[in-house]
Amino acid sequence: MSTSSYYVPATSKWPIISVIFLGFLAVGAGMLMTSGSGLIPFLIGFVGTLWVMYGWFMDVFKESQAGLYDAQMDRSFRQGMAWFIFSEVMFFAAFFGTLFYIRVFALPWLDGEGAKGVTALLWPDFVATWPLMTTPDPSIGGPDAIVNPWTLPLINTLLLVASSITLTFAHHALKHQDRKKLINWLVATLVLGGVFLVIQGIEYVHAWTELGLTLQAGIYGATFFLLTGFHGVHVTIGLIILAVMLVRVLKGHFTPDQHFAFEASAWYWHFVDVVWIGLFLFVYVF
Fold this sequence. Notes:
CATH architecture of the largest domain: Up-down Bundle
Keywords: Membrane, Translocase, Transmembrane, Transmembrane helix
GO molecular function, one term: cytochrome-c oxidase activity
Family: Belongs to the cytochrome c oxidase subunit 3 family.
Number of domains: 2
Largest sheet: none
Mean pLDDT: 90
Membrane topology: Multi-pass membrane protein
Structural class: mainly alpha
Transmembrane segments: 12-33, 39-61, 82-102, 150-170, 182-202, 222-247, 267-285
């Protein structure tokens, strides 16, 4: 790592290209969920986003391996990653806030409680409960049943907690230049994360086909899939990042003193794990 001058990266095409493909991805996903169409823009956005990630990662790898980054660049990367994770915290805080607002304020108001309890006049027979199995409007059916938190969700919680532990062991091995343990623990983390996604897919199929728990199953179904679905997307992104870290480890890129890319991926993965614990408690258990 050079310390004699501050490296200014060359002009990059990736930011604007990423915005375009993320736009395709968002529009396509929205169309798929609302009308069943939109598969083509979704696939364009998905494949394009993967291409952007590959190209952008490669540029950073080449700059890093060329010794172009100095201590100031390292601080910039750390600050940037910290702000990125903060933005992700705010992203999930909005959805958790929606959940809490519904449960603490909106439902009691519809049941006649509080200063806005007059709204109970709309549906005088409505009884506020959570999970909301019977919606105020009879035209919108609630779920037939909810997912038992002590089955697949508990297994997934244990898997993600274990993956944070294995990733910490991998980071420890990297600091001590133990490449064999580093690779083994990192592969274990990837396996645990992959199994998590498989189990979540099984849970979704079970909920959708057997429990009547769908996006159309009232506010509970909508918030359930909104929170757990976005978390699943973040797990997928985290696995892609960790897979890239594994490739770099196999190429011998990191040293005990210079491995912020690995450290940043660990920050992200631990954040994803903490979010899941919140989801397990407030979506599945309470």
